[in-house]
Amino acid sequence: MVSSQEGGEERSNQDLARHIQWSKAAYEFSGQLISYASAIHRFQFRVFSFSIPLFGKTGRLLRWDRCGIIFTKSFNWYEQQDTLFDFFWRLNYLSDVDRGYYCG
Prior knowledge:
3 helices; alpha+beta
């Protein structure tokens, strides 16, 4: 669930509805993404992980943890290639802890 400190649960549901158009396919796809993220966290020692779903020419950067998900605005990765390049460049130079691996 996505939440806001200002408006509580009611505001968070409005924000979520504004960012995602919920069709049957969207529900199925989000369930698939959740199952992938759950498997990663179940079989790897991770505190959080990243994923990048691409929908045609648009995509989002996702950060998963055990409490939920944080996602970016949808962007056109075909025209805004710098967004993906910058993300991967930064990810490459992070330490294992900063990439979400549990080192405790």
